[in-house]
Design brief:
212 residues; mainly alpha
Length: 212
C-alpha cells in the first residue's frame, strides 16, 4: 500500500521527526512515538520498493516474501541503548497485552474518525481494513471485532488505562463516542445517537442531551 517513507513524510510534516534547531522543550512536548521507522527510512529501507524495510524482500529468497534481517535487530539494540531503554524479560509480555497495544489504539482512532464524519458508518472502517490492510476477514473487521469479541466497555476501560500510562501518545486519548457508548452499554448499531453535534463540547462518558 505504501512504503515506510510515506509515514516518515507525514511525521516530518507534523513536526514529530527530530530536526536541526529543535529545542529540548519542543522535543519534550512532542507526542511519544518510536523513531525506529524514521531510522529505517534514513537508512534507505523503504520496504518492497527497495527490497528491504523492517524485513528483507529479496525475490531470489523465499519468493520475495519477508525474511528477518539481522541488521534490523542491530538497529533496534542500538536505538534502545541510545534511549536508555531496558528490554522486558522474556515471557513478561502476554499475548493479551500485545493485542491490546497493537489493536485497541487503532479501534479507538476509528471511533474518532466516525464521530468526525470522516467515515460514514462503522462498516466503512471494517471494509477498508479487511480489503485494504489485510485485517483478518473472519473477525468482521476492527469495529465488529471490538464490539463482539472485546466489548465496548472493556475496550474503553483498557484504552483509559493505557492513556494514563502513556499520556503523550495521541491514539490513547479515549474517543468521546466510544466513551459515551460504553457508559450507556449501547450497541455499536446505535452509534449515530451518541455523536456529539458539531460545536458542542461533551464531557467524557456523558450521554447526548437527547439520551438524558
Amino acid at each position: 500500500l505504501a512504503g515506510n517513507d510515506i509515514g516518515y513524510n507525514v511525521r516530518r510534516e507534523r513536526g514529530l521527526v527530530p530536526h536541526e534547531g529543535q529545542t529540548a522543550a519542543e522535543a519534550a512536548r512532542a507526542p511519544r512515538y518510536c523513531a525506529l521507522g524514521d531510522l529505517l527510512v534514513e537508512a534507505g529501507r523503504l520496504g518492497h520498493k527497495t527490497a528491504k524495510g523492517w524485513y528483507l524482500y529479496d525475490p531470489k529468497v523465499n519468493g520475495g516474501r519477508a525474511t528477518v534481517d539481522p541488521r534490523v535487530d542491530d538497529m533496534v539494540r542500538t536505538h534502545r541503548a541510545a534511549k536508555g531503554l531496558m528490554p522486558r524479560p522474556p515471557g513478561s509480555i502476554s499475548e493479551r497485552e500485545i493485542r491490546e497495544r497493537c489493536l485497541f489504539g487503532l479501534v479507538n482512532e476509528a471511533f474518532k474518525v466516525l464521530e468526525e464524519g470522516i467515515a460514514t458508518r462503522p462498516s466503512d472502517v471494517d471494509v477498508i481494513y479487511i480489503h485494504g490492510y489485510g485485517w483478518p476477514d473472519w473477525t468482521g473487521g476492527p469495529m465488529h471485532w471490538a464490539e463482539q469479541a472485546v466489548g465496548l466497555p472493556k475496550l474503553h476501560a483498557a484504552v483509559g488505562r493505557l492513556h494514563e500510562r502513556f499520556p503523550n501518545v495521541p491514539h490513547w486519548a479515549p474517543a468521546g463516542l466510544l466513551a459515551r457508548l460504553a457508559a450507556a452499554r449501547a450497541p455499536l448499531s446505535k452509534w449515530a445517537d451518541f455523536v456529539t453535534p458539531p460545536g458542542v463540547e461533551a464531557e467524557k462518558g456523558a450521554l447526548p442531551a437527547a439520551k438524558l
